[in-house]
Amino acid sequence: MNVEFVNPILVSILNVLSTMAKIDAKPGRPAVKQGDVSRGDVTGIIGMTGSKARGSIAISFPEPVILDIAKRMLNEEPAGVDATVTDLVGEIINMVSGGAKKLLGDQGYDFDMALPAVVSGKNHVVDHKSRGPKIILPFTVDTGVFFVEICFEN
Amino acid sequence: MNVEFVNPILVSILNVLSTMAKIDAKPGRPAVKQGDVSRGDVTGIIGMTGSKARGSIAISFPEPVILDIAKRMLNEEPAGVDATVTDLVGEIINMVSGGAKKLLGDQGYDFDMALPAVVSGKNHVVDHKSRGPKIILPFTVDTGVFFVEICFEN
């Protein structure tokens, strides 16, 4: 996959969390995903297709992290990962991919976005079925660490 | 969503299972999804984007059903939902969407497919974040019932 894709996605995530939830997330070191590292309690995933590349982005949140984000965005804290929270994760991944699409467009890569899906359940594992490496990016916030997986073929 | 999309996807699923696994699946009655009905142990999901519509297809298998399909396709039965099985589910959803893309193309709907993702874990829930109704299709096979969710905006 093209490493040029990583930074626009990273920037878009920081923008979304900073603008929508007033959270400064600290990005960690990108790594090539080995095995099934990314386990969250709720994961948003979206496919992006373009003439030059296609791929998907997933964001996987532990429950305490997404409940805090929900509290900040909605001004009330849900009791658990309910429909309000999965809707919010769908909106977050939509905004992240929308921002990334714009930044990638500036680099000459045009994408159409698929509809997002949100997966919930303790210990679920999301495995992108791409040929080639997947990049995993950890982000640290006050309430824990969440992970972004980036996976493109081109 | 356009109900014209349901039959090509249904036909493609029957084709894939019949050709690849020698399984005759019996489709049940399509229903509008209410709440989070589709819970499987392993789910393949793929986004499709086109100029006239965009959406996603998910197939969610209980463990006994996918292990039997794996045995028939690979000539050995995996002990559980391991990497071999998630790879297989990725291939199945790829083949299903590839077949559906061809049939939908004949109807004048062109799609690009995103990369598939496969989600595993007991009691996970996959929620398509689309405006409008989602169609859920049950399929009965000897080892149980699996579900297909179809979700398009157009």
List keywords for this structure.
154 residues, homodimer, Chemotaxis protein chec, eight-stranded antiparallel β-sheet, alpha+beta
The CATH superfamily title of chain A: CheC-like
| End-to-end C-alpha gap of chain A | 6 Å
Q: How many separate domains of chain A? A: 1
Q: What is the oligomer described by this structure?
A: homodimer
CATH level 1 name of chain A: Alpha Beta
Greatest interface and its participating residue counts: A-B, 38 and 38 residues
The structural class of chain A is alpha+beta
Shape of chain A: globular
How would you sum up this structure in a few lines?
Two copies of one chain form a homodimer. Chain A contains three helices and nine strands. By secondary structure, the first copy, chain A, is of the alpha+beta class.
What does this 3D model show about the protein?
The structure is a homodimer of 154-residue chains. Chain A has a single domain, classed as CheC-like (Chemotaxis protein chec, 3-Layer(aba) Sandwich), CATH 3.40.1550. In chain A, α1 packs across α3. In chain A, strands 1, 2, 3, 4, 5, 6, 8 and 9 form an eight-stranded antiparallel β-sheet that branches. The termini of chain A are close together. The model of chain A has no long low-confidence stretch (mean pLDDT 90). Chain A is α+β, with helices and mostly antiparallel strands. In chain A, β8 and β9 form a beta hairpin. The radius of gyration of chain A is 14 Å and the shape is globular. In chain A, 34% of the residues lie in helices and 31% in strands. Chains A and B meet through β3, β4, α3, β5 and β6 of A and β3, β4, α3, β5 and β6 of B.
